[in-house]
Every structure is written in C-alpha cells, then in structure tokens.
Amino acid sequence: MKHHLDWSSYETAGQGDAYAGIPATGGDFAKAVAVCISDKLCQRTPKGVMCPSFRATDDAAHSPGGRVVVLKAALNGEFGDDAFADPRLAAAMELCVGCKGCKRECANQVDMAAIKIEYQAQVNALKGVPHRDRLIAGLPGLLRYRRVMGGLIRWRNRASWLARAGEFIFGIAAKRILPEPAVAPYAAPRSCVESAAGDRDVILFIDTFAMHFEPEIARAAHQVLTAAGYRVITLRAAADDEPGRALCCGRTWLSLGQVDAARREARRLHAALRPALASGIPIVGLEPSCILSLRDDHLKLGLGEEAVALSKQVYLFEEFIAREHDRKRFDLEFKPLPRGKTLVHGHCHQKAVGAMKSLRKVLRLIPEFEFEFIEASCCGMAGSFGLEAEHADISMRMAELDLLPALRAAPDAAILANGFSCRHQIREGVARDPIHVALLLRDAIDTRGQTC
C-alpha cells in the first residue's frame, strides 16, 4: 500500500501489545487505525467535540470506533484487492467531518481526521478526483480571478435556477448560500511602529478567507497588534511566485484528499516563511483550521524539519496575545464595550488542541466583558461538508444538536466565532452575524493616548 501521508510516527504503535489487532496490510497507516481500543467512548454524548456524526445519527457505525471496525476489515483483505473502492468503506467514512475531536478526547487519540484524508487520497488514486472536489479545493487559486468568481457566486445565490443547475452539475446544495467575496481584498496598511528588526516583530499570515472574504478581520488584527506596540509584517509570497494569489496552508486540498496539491501549497508557504523561521519571528494567523493545519497536518506531508520548526512557531491570534500577556509583553489597555452577554462558539480544531483556554484569557482582558462558552460539538459546516447536496441536511442536524438552540435561547446576545465556516453556518442557521475575536478587540481598544 502506497501511503499519501507520512505515518512513520506510528512505527512502534502497538508493539508488545497482544491485543493491538494491527491489520495485515497497510504498514504504519494500519497501526494508526489500530490504536483504537474499542472502549466505545466515542459512542457516548458527554460534553466535548467527539463525535458529531454519531451524535447526529445515533448510529455506532458513524463513530470513530465504528469506522475502525470497517477499516480493519478492509486492511485485512476482507473487501478484496480494491478495498478503498468498496461501498462499505465509503459508507463508514462518509460522515466523518475531520473535527479532530477524537484525537483529543479518545483515550488513545485516534486521529480519524488524518485517517479520513488518507482514505480519500486512496479513493482519488483509484477513481480520480470528482469535479466538485477539484472546484472546491481549487478555490484559493480561482480567487485570483475574484471579480469573475464574485460575480458568478452572487448570481448563483440570487438565481434559484442557477443554484439548481449547480446542484445538478457539481452536487453543491441549491438550498445553501455560498460565501461571497468582499468588494476588495485585504491590503496591508503601513505599520506605524518604528523599531529595530527583530524587536517585537510579528508575522501576520493572511489566509485565503481573510484575504478575499472577510478582510476586515485581517485589518482588525493588524490594528490591535500595532496598537500593542508590535511591528506587524504581512506575510507575502516570494517575488518569483504567482502574483495576485494569497498564500495558503493547503487545507482545502488536504481535507478532500488531494495531498500532492496540498503539499505543493505547503512548500509555497514554507518558502515565504523561510526567513521568519530562521530568525524565530512569531507567525500569527486568524483561521483555526489553517493555523492548526500548520501545527498538525503539515507534519504528515513529509516536509522535513522546516515543517517541525513551523509547527512550534505559529500561533492563533488569541494564543499569541495570551502568551505575550503572560510574559508581561502585551499591556494594551482595553475599554468596556456597550453590549450585553456574548455567546462564544469554538471551532472544532480550537477545541481539539485546547486553544479555547487562550481565547478565555484574552476575553478577560476586556473590562466588565460578559461572555459564555457554548457547550457544543461541530457546527456541521466543516469546510465544504455542509455545502454538499448529500450532506446539507445532516450538516444542519449537527448544528441543531446544541449550537443553534443555544443561540436561539439568547436572541439578544452577540456571537463570537473564530472559524470562517462556523460563522457561515450560524448566519444561515439563525440569521445573525457572528464576529471574530480580532474585531472584538479592535472595538475595545482604548484610543486615549494612542498615536496610530
């Protein structure tokens, strides 16, 4: 079996354990599957992320443990030579949304999100990449033609016949609204902080979605960091790279099993980051799925020590502020905000790596700020999952388990959600507009005494 991801970290998994049940084929990938100990924790519904598809269906087959049973059968040869093309395996893996909840909450940290990527890559190698997956994964590149793309998306959203045609041709749910690009992409302002190179420098990584869809979030992050005395350097592609295209972590390709394309994007990003990695400048980003891909998924792309160095040097916006505040380096004063309680929904990947602690610390920097974290699993959008015609209904069922009822129970509360797909799901689910923490902190800056 040719692996598309690097599973060498599982080389010694299960050794000396008579009950490991490692499948006969699959090498280190089989060992990653076999770390499941069948304790059925993933088939319970306590507080946490795991497992959105099981919670929505109440079917053990759609839990990580249920998927492991089928994966083991496939790797043991029970489904024949082309096991990854078998419909039984497809049915088991279909509703995994890659939330990473099992990697944190499972007793043995089954990484079903990564297993799903490998599975999809194997299917793509056997059957080819579907047109819809090529279209969605290629969005970061297509946005070079943002005027055309923006016009087509807006036309599709307003013309029901075109939405129905899109569902028939590509399988994109006609009843779902597609995110529309902003009028103009993000353009970095000149920093007003004058300091020697390396002294309070920070690299701001503007992902595809902040660049093209919600540039006000990137502007807010730049403003907050600048007001706190950092020299903000906006990460740009190398001079000989593709002009007009945002740097990308490769997440859109990776989540749909297009690993080679994701690896190319990762290398492009690493090339732009090489000077920062050499000098140790912190790299700060805004989108949880992007930044946490750099800390986790990139380590399975076979990119060497550069990927390891990046994983230790990259932070979510709120993680960086919390770290700097703990080190007595972030002393920006905030003012109370004229709002009531704010409900906070965490992106699954934030929860999976424990990043919600940093968000709580940062929110407490705002005087008299009242907030409440929503106890909910995945919002159900999960990248493109909720836009897919066959998954649109189950996507909303996931949202209706906890998230949307909690929002409806507090109709006057503001909503904070740092994930791009989470905000999109909330807008459709309850017709309210969530904000990113960067916008909140920008609004709370005490401008008295500020010179820029």
From TrEMBL:
Going by the entry's taxonomy, the superkingdom of the source organism is recorded as Bacteria
Q: Which residues form the Cysteine-rich domain?
A: 347-426
Keyword list (alphabetical) reads: 4Fe-4S, Iron, Iron-sulfur, Metal-binding, Repeat
Q: Does the keyword Calcium apply?
A: no
MF annotations from Gene Ontology: 4 iron, 4 sulfur cluster binding; metal ion binding; oxidoreductase activity
Cross-referenced InterPro entries: Cys_rich_dom
Look up the signal peptide feature and give its range.
none
Q: What is this protein called?
A: Cysteine-rich domain-containing protein
